[in-house]
Amino acid sequence: MQHNEISNEAVQPEYVIFSRSEGNPDLDGGAGAFWSNSDGWVHFDSATRFSYPQHVASSLPTACGNDSKWITLDHARSIVGSDAEPPAAAFRFKVGDIVHWTNDYGAEWFGRRIVGIDHYATFGPRYFLDPNDAYWAPVHERNLAYETATSPELEAQLPHDGGLRCP
Q: How far is CA 131 from CA 41, 101, 128, in A?
């Protein structure tokens, strides 16, 4: 083909599945969620990308508001805007770190292990801790510090708050 000829091959967009009702107002401000074939409803960065033929041949998953729909990848990017996952360097802690958690009211929990990172940049770095009765609720980085208590101190605290048993 000459450089001045027009190609008949159209560039096919990629698609993702989106649902506003599957969003979590506490995590994403209600912006919505995207479908992952392996993990269900997730943040945009983990969404499954579909080619045009896959999008035509696939069914939509169920959403709690019956509002799942196909949107182009470009449209999805405009929905999430600056909420894309921040670089890992933006996080002070990593999975496996043992931390001391002080909530906004001054209550303290010792010997908590970071088991996950919440990548919703809108809210700043947040972490999932174990043990934690509200395992689904991430804790803001500002409320965490590296654990400085010794193993005997943590063992003494264990009956009071269910902290980790450290070797």
A: 24, 11, 9
143: its two tokens: 């409320």
Phi and psi torsions of 64, nearest 5°:
-60, -25
Cross-sheet strand order for the sheet of 98-102? 139-140, 126-130, 108-118, 98-102, 144-146
CB atoms within 10 A of CB 66: 9
Calpha distance 17→83 (Å, rounded)? 17
Dihedrals φ, ψ of 55, to 5°? -65, -40
Kindly tell me the sign of the dihedral angle through the C-alpha atoms of 90, 95, 101, 104: positive
Contact yes or no for 144/127 (Cβ under 8 A): yes
Q: Answer for the pair 164, 98: CB distance below 8 angstroms, yes or no.
A: yes
Beta strands in the chain (DSSP E): 15-19, 33-36, 40-42, 69-72, 98-102, 108-118, 126-130, 139-140, 144-146
Instruction: Enter the pTM of the model.
Output: 0.45
pLDDT of residue 8: 43
| pLDDT tens-digit series, residues 90-102 | 678 888 899 999 9
Residue 145 tokens, joined: 């510090």
φ and ψ at 19, to 5 degrees? -145, 120
